[in-house]
Automatic annotation (TrEMBL):
UniProt domain CN hydrolase: residue ranges: 1-236
Entry annotated with the keyword Cytoplasm: no
UniProt-listed InterPro entries: C-N_Hydrolase (IPR003010), C-N_Hydrolase_sf (IPR036526), UPF0012_CS (IPR001110)
Organism (species): Planococcus faecalis
Alphabetic keyword roster: Hydrolase
Protein name in the entry: Carbon-nitrogen hydrolase
Any Pfam family hit: CN_hydrolase
Keyword Hydrolase: yes
Amino acid sequence: MKIACVQMDIIFGEPEQNYQQVINYLTEAAANGAETIVLPEMWNTGYALTELGTLADSTNQTVELLKSFAKEHAVNIVGGSVSTQKNNGFYNTMYVVNKNGELVLEYDKAHRFGLMDEHIHLEEGDTLGTFKLDGTVYGGVICYDIRFPEWIRAQALNGAKLIFVSAEWPEARIDHWRILLQARAIENQCFIVAVNRVGSDPKNVFGGSTMVIAPWGEVRLDMQKDEGVGYVEINLDEVEEVRKRIPVFDDRREKLYEKFSKSINEVL
Ligand SMILES: O=C(O)CCC(=O)C(=O)O
């Protein structure tokens, strides 16, 4: 599978300009033969959280754009995430569409990031971001979610061989981003395709470092601070090879883990 990672800048609080930027990047990636294109987090508005009442997508604009582009160009799109308004609240929502133009995932970020005020302005999601493309199971998570190993493990246990991460991760903690992503790939013996933004907003400078990591932990793509589209070819058979080499999933002791997580709760 040829994957294209869009490491873009996001224009703060300007959805129409960001939609146009994304169309340009999708067009470039499709013209270069990408089969799956991945976008960063909150690419429609950036973290303009106090203005979501007028800026968030409340009309399905994003889904319609992604569906029609995917169908016309026969590409899968992991549409990063956008700010959405639904059920009387605002969400940080990841959409994935397949190459037939069908929506196969709508995932609301499960873990809200307090340092960027998400807990004040956004609702939290309660569903697991697994989905299928051509019969294979994938996972999708958003930024801060990667700090929760049990959340990524849940995806692997539900069959995900590759987990997509969309982010607006600040440069100040980019060493955490790199190490956490590599750890999540190694411990779950899966591919991680993680797309971060570059540029800055009124409060943060973002760290780029979009990466593709193989199930054995090797970094196959590292975009550092380059703005634009990065490409990588991956073969999902590597997942089974690594899982045979060290059979972590067979050696897990679920009941033991449950026993001690209960004990800790009882003590507290
Ligand atoms: O966990 C972090 O350090 C960054 C998380 C973040 O920026 C986010 O979830 O938007």
